[in-house]
Amino acid sequence: MFAQEAVAGQHPQNLYEQLLTAARRQRRLLHVHWELTYRCNEHCTHCYLDVLRPGAVAPNELSTVECLQVVDQLADLGVVNLTFSGGEILVRRDFFVIAGYAHEKRFVLRLFTNGIGITPHVADQMAELHPYAVEISLYAIDAATHDAITQVPGSFERTVRALQLLHDRAVRTVVKTPLMHENVRQVHGLRELADELGAGFRTDLTITTKRDGTCGPLRHRLTDDDLLWVMRETLDSTHWPATLPPPDAPVCGVSQLALVIDPSGDVCPCAEIRTAAGNVRRQPVADIWRQSAVFTALNGVTRNDLPLCRACSLAALCVRCHGVALNEEGDLRRPALTNCRTALARRQVLIEKGALAPGFPVPLHLLANRTAYAKR
In angstroms, rounded to a whole number, what is the distance separating the alpha carbons of residues 223 and 176? Predict the structure, then answer.
């Protein structure tokens, strides 16, 4: 029904955007991100998870049968995009049973992996799934830096090999790189390496605390100088408008189209907001999606609901995350100072590029906290 509503009288090139708009209006579940395990064969220094070793006992993980039942439920709900992640998906011996069943159910599959377990045989199995993309974490253009982050000697060579093996099998790949103090000056080299490997390239500026609130990963965050450098090198000044979005516009899509399932079956709003809305062992996914108070409370939060952000002059330059605000400030309606710091750097570089006036205002709540966020 929502597809008919979306396409009536619309141009074909806008079909996907129209479908999303109609789906949001009807609150249709389209995207599921499923963390199959928290076991991993790397132990990355910046990881927000306390991962378990590959052979560790993980008694709370959903069984193969339970996973297949959830796949059936997601298919019945009309979910389109299904992402499998971890931990490391390939440490589950039943991964290809689960993913193969999802392929039979005609999901658009996206696979997140570090790649070090991808052999020619595994690459053949992945190609048979016809995934939309296999996204592989690569942290540097040199083995010393990459392996220091993964804490696995030889992981750089094995990750690069995985990208080559998949490319040889016409599998679409994406190199994913969280930018950190250790690797930010390699961003151009990483893009060139991705191009050589036939892969797309995507970066992320956000390094978060661990799920238990400990701050170890934050030592890898970009410094102020790092942040300004990468903005000067990569920012497209035509992408950022100086006009504020409407105050009644949703700030992010949390609870509108997507959810996260963790290895034990807990269902959460997103990767950052880990409040359990229910568990698939106790409730059907459809009931959790439609009836949980957790999703109801988050659905449709707008700038009007954010006491400081709704009047912020940097709103048009800010990629705000409710989850980061919740984890850092204890209140998802407060400014996330990580996002604020990035918006300030973006403001500075846009002024330097002539896209903003030199006097473009800085909101008072950021002036008052400038020392605090600079140290975070």
Answer: 20
Residue entry with tokens 């080559």: 164
| H/E run at residue 202 | strand 200-204
Full pLDDT tens readout for the chain, 376 residues: 334 333 344 454 578 788 778 888 888 999 999 999 999 999 999 999 989 999 899 989 999 999 999 999 999 999 999 999 999 999 999 999 999 999 999 999 999 999 999 999 999 999 999 999 999 999 999 999 999 999 999 999 999 999 999 999 999 999 999 999 999 999 999 999 999 999 999 999 989 888 887 888 989 999 999 999 999 999 999 888 666 767 787 778 888 899 999 999 999 999 999 999 999 999 999 999 999 999 998 887 888 899 988 888 898 899 889 999 998 888 999 998 899 999 999 999 999 999 999 989 998 888 865 544 333 3
Q: Are strands 266-268 and 278-279 parallel, antiparallel or unpaired?
A: antiparallel
**What residues are paired with 73 via a beta bridge?**
none
- Which segments of 292-361 does DSSP mark as H helices, in order? 293-298, 322-329, 337-352
Whether 74 contacts 285, CB under 8 Å: yes
Packing angle of the helix pair 337-352, 224-234 (nearest 10 deg): 50
Residue 176 phi/psi, 5-degree rounding, is -110, 130
CA nearest neighbour of 52 among 69, 35, 73: 35
3-state secondary structure 210-273: CCCCCCHHHHHCCCHHHHHHHHHHHCCHHHCCCCCCCCCCECCCCCCCEEEECCCCEEECCCCC
Residue 286 Cα distances to 15, 75, 106, 322, angstroms: 26, 11, 19, 24
Q: How far is CA 179 from the centre of its chain?
A: 14
